Amino acid sequence: MSGYAFDWIDAFSDRPFGGNGCVVVHGAADLPVQERLALVRETSLSECAFLVGSDKADFGVRYYLADREILMAGHPTIATVVSLLERGLVTLQNGRADFTLEVGAGVLPIGVSAQDAGFRITMTQPAPVFGAYFDPLEIAGLYGLQASDLIAPPQVVSTGTPFCIAVLRNKDTLRRAVLDVDRAGAFIAAHAPANPGLHEPFLVTLGGETATGDTFSRLLLAPPHPSEDPFTGSATGCMAAYLWHHGLIETPEFVAEQGHWMGRPGQAHVEVLGPREEITGVKVGGSGVVLMQGSLRI
């Protein structure tokens, strides 16, 4: 039986039980994939992170859902950096640290800055790839909604992981969304061959849930995943690129919110880099807190 040090982090939150939880396992290069997947299922979290080393970046990590690897994920990235800070593997000089993190999708630049209440961790996601548009009626039908409930054409966007971004009319519409699991499965099966790694659509509204927020979102999921993701940092980057590219926001910097209706409020500070027609990347930043620490014995 081997022991692996781990931290349970609540990411995109400045308090315990907010944002999205993630277990970060250290020294996991020799941990078999099936046991990584089993840990995700055991925790009932959306994802877990496994530090594996890198010959391309300062640190290397891989992220897993309950049934497969995910090449790019936002809240596990925040969680991983919080864990590295907690264990003294990253230290700040003059209130700042900059380093690189290799994930499945490639190398991410990471910045950490000291804040009054802790740290702000910022990842720079790659330039977005804009993919296929979908019929609003098809996307609305996944949630028991009408095509008129969407205010812009749904489109696949990827900053490492592809999401169909669907902008809904208002928060009342967002509350009414209920995922039809069978239709969602058929949707992913039909479109995943052209969009490997495609997830259920990311539902977005303009206007935050709090006075400081500018957007509010939900990601409803089908089994074996939890029914809803509290905060989705990778999809937030895709959403930001979509909104800026299509002229739905006036400024490339804004605050994204998610998870409040689940009792797990999360927040990210977002900046889209470059002009609307030539986006070069998306910065997604947030904080995180250590909830638990221990040794994984498998």
Q: How would you characterize the overall build of this protein?
A:
- Helices cover 20% and strands 37% of the residues.
- It has 298 residues and is of the alpha+beta class.
- The mean pLDDT is 96.
- The N and C termini lie close together (5 Å).
- It has two domains: 3-124 and 287-297, Diaminopimelate Epimerase, Chain A, domain 1; 129-279, Roll (Diaminopimelate Epimerase, Chain A, domain 1), CATH 3.10.310.
Q: Which properties best describe this structure?
A:
single chain, about 300 residues, alpha+beta, Diaminopimelate Epimerase, Chain A, domain 1, 18-stranded mixed β-sheet, 6 helices, 18 strands
Rg to the nearest angstrom? 18 Å
- What structural class do you assign from the helix and strand content? alpha+beta
Shape: globular
Domains, number: 2
CATH topology grouping of the largest domain: Diaminopimelate Epimerase, Chain A, domain 1
Binned, the helix content reads 10-25%
Please work out how many helical segments DSSP would assign. Answer: 6
**What's the CATH architecture name of the largest domain?**
Roll
What is the CATH superfamily of the largest domain? Diaminopimelate Epimerase, Chain A, domain 1
Count all strands and give the number: 18
Summarize model confidence as the mean pLDDT. Answer: 96
The level 1 CATH classification of the largest domain is Alpha Beta
Poorly predicted ranges (pLDDT <50, ≥5 residues)?
Answer: none
Q: Give the termini separation.
A: 5 Å
Largest sheet: 18 strands, mixed
Order of helices and strands: EEHEEEHEEEEHEEHHEEEHEEEE
Strand content: 35-45%
